[in-house]
Please model this.
Amino acid sequence: MREEIGLGRFGDRRLEKGGWSLHEALVRRPCSCIRRLAGNRAREVQFTRFLRNKKVGVAEMASHAAARTADRVAGREVIVVQDTSELFLGGRRAKANGYGPVGKGGGVRGLLLHAALAIDAGNDALLGLVDAQVWNRDKGKVTARRSRATTNKESQRWISVAAKAGKALSAARSITVISDRESDIYEHFVRRPANVEFIVRASWDRQIKLTSGKSARLFAFGTRLPKVDQFSVTIPAAPGRKERTARLVLRFSPVTLCRPHPSPGPGLPDTIGLTMVDVREVSADHGGKPIHWRLLTTHVLTNPDQARRIVDLYRKRWVIEEFFRTLKTAGFDIEEADIGEPEVMIKFVAATAVAAVTIMQLVRSRDGMTQESIADAFEPDDQPVLEALSAQLEGATVKQKNPFPKGTLAFAAWVIARLGGWTAYYGKPGPKIMRLGLEAFRRIKHGTTLKLRNV
Model:
């Protein structure tokens, strides 16, 4: 697997080597145990020294990963999905180790991870990590939220991702940053980079200014808009929710948001023009809560097809949920890491986030729809091994043949999935299968190296 997706250059050759080695171990043997990742005492010491080194930082890891992503975006229509996830690391013991509160009530301690992923809007290829921020709420009691500038709040992360995306992905044909309700911040819209568009799910029933000069409330205004389209979409399964087909009604209109009072920051304009896309589910026969999305976008929309496109792009936000699932339960079990020092754990989470992208690339390329090259995730000397394994793993039936062209990432994903225990008959291989397959591939690749060296 490619090591250079890894953790950057820090000026110290041994430190740089330690970062690459840790990334390689995380990709090939995804887990949260440093000792198991290392495999021997020498590498365990190497990984530990790397994570404890003051020269290593989350910003450097994320910046290097973003640079690798930037190499792949030229000429593409790119969407950037971002969100925050809480990492639950324990109770009293975690508190004693210095971990801050997460979740409701403050009884559970852990870290927070904010991640942003770049995706090709045309074929859904996962292009890479744009940013990763990891922090610990260990500052004690803070001043009231309204008395602090946005730069001193956790909400600054939404603005920072947009700025980094605009800079790092500037070679893309277009950039649209997509985020959920927590990013519905007036200053977020105001500080938007010129080369970046937004799609944000509205959280606040804001005051808006009508063309007549009067004021209204955003949510009631959206409900009164005329229906312009009705269509069906598949809503994927989630914890506590089965997959279903939903019939949605679409409305849209330009809106002028008024600055909140008291003002969230100095120098902000009194109003800002956006477009609201109101999407409501009318097939509420499933027993669950029907969908109602109020999407605010900086894209200028003139017809229902363009509004429908905004809904389709917003639905791709689900990729970030799959990313967090890969980190937590489906691949790395990051919350099971027994690391008592928060600063070390913060760096380990960042390193794992970089490695999780590779696992997800394999999962998402399994159908051949992303049209990615094998070189996007594997080293050149991996390809002949993968081709030999494919020939060996293929069976007599059509379903047991590798259907993808050699040299594509889909071809490699088929091999890795078969090594992970997938039979090619039932379902589609997910992160756990790819994790097992990569571990098996690592052992096989090591065996071929030993043979070539006549050991």
The first helix runs from residue 13 to 28. Confidence is low (pLDDT under 50) at residues 2-17.
